[in-house]
Write a structure and sequence with these properties.
Layout (H helix, E strand, L loop, with lengths): L1 H14 L2 H7 L4 H23 L7 H27 L2 H8 L2 H12 L6 H17 L7 H25 L4 H26 L20 H24 L4 H7 L2 H14 L7 H32 L1
């Protein structure tokens, strides 16, 4: 169980860099996701080869997982669109709503009773993140896109919980990446034309977040560490912990990203006392819920053993 919690928080730390790389890469959100999916899939093949985890599920299950890959693709598009429409801090603070969405989606999808405790923790986290920043009217588009991204992120995490119980996490991640890439590739000509975007090739330049000229390096780090590695270990963790615990703990991601944005993009100028109060509320909610879940599962194990 301890290993699962360690894997979960390591994955969340790596995900904390996704917003940073998303802002550093000078490409539109469609191209970022398109490159990220194919590069991540390629990196995952190497990881699966050396770890000797190349087993894949049956055709029916593979098709179901492929559908989830489309959700992952859309989740990423809305996420990076939110960053482009606002900034890292606004996008990630709104993304915290994933826990509240999960409190409703998980019991509905898995046909379970809604736990009021989970709803309360989700609301507490939302309050904490809301206190961190006061949203301005000109960030309305970014806020809406972030909320859509959070809903889709919650949905595919809850659905993935069912698949990781009987299938290889690496195989699931690979199938979702490839299916998402194929889905986006088919629609790419129409999307680029409809939104007046251009097909972009990553640039190669100085290694600096502020100069924003080394898209290749940021894409590689985003694809390998923040995607292939992070997704694999997060789904291994899902084999031991609940989807709600995962998504509630994911609220640490915006905190990591906000701090990193302060360091690399000087977004700290907008911080105030509310940031520290909100941070304390979110951390407290995550820690308390994790302890409650851990003790509950430990007690059940002792009873059944």
């Amino acid at each position: 169980m301890r290993k699962a919690y360690f894997q979960m928080h390591l994955a969340i730390l790596l995900w904390g860099f996704t917003g940073i790389f998303g802002k550093a890469i000078l490409m539109n959100e469609i191209m970022i996701v398109w490159y990220r999916m194919i590069m991540s899939a390629a990196a995952l093949v190497i990881i699966m080869y050396f770890s000797k985890k190349m087993s894949f599920p049956g055709r029916k299950t593979m098709l179901q997982i492929s559908a989830v890959g489309i959700l992952v693709c859309l989740h990423w598009i809305f996420f990076y669109a939110s960053i482009k429409a606002s900034n890292v801090s606004i996008a990630l603070s709104c993304f915290s709503s994933v826990s509240l969405f999960t409190a409703f989606l998980e019991p509905v999808i898995h046909k379970q009773k809604i736990k009021w405790r989970d709803l309360i923790f989700g609301i507490v986290v939302m309050i904490g993140i809301y206190i961190i920043f006061s949203f301005q009217k000109w960030y309305a588009k970014g806020i809406l896109l972030a909320l859509l991204s959070a809903f889709l992120g919650s949905l595919f995490t809850v659905i993935n919980k069912r698949f990781v119980e009987n299938n290889s996490p690496s195989a699931i991640t690979f199938i979702e990446l490839i299916s998402g890439f194929l889905f986006l590739s088919i629609l790419l000509p129409f999307i680029l034309t409809g939104f007046n975007y251009e097909f972009q090739i990553p640039r190669n330049g100085d290694i600096s977040f502020t100069s924003n000229t080394n898209d290749w390096l940021w894409l590689i780090l985003l694809s390998v560490l923040c995607t292939s590695v992070a997704f694999t270990i997060s789904m291994e963790a899902l084999q031991k912990i609940s989807a709600y615990t995962m998504n509630l703990s994911v609220n640490l991601e915006p905190l990591y990203s906000i701090v990193l944005a302060m360091i690399f993009f000087d977004e700290g100028k907008t911080l105030n006392t509310g940031f520290y109060i909100g941070t304390l509320i979110v951390l407290a909610a995550v820690v308390v819920h994790t302890i409650i879940e851990y003790r509950g599962r430990k007690s059940n194990t002792l009873i059944t053993s």
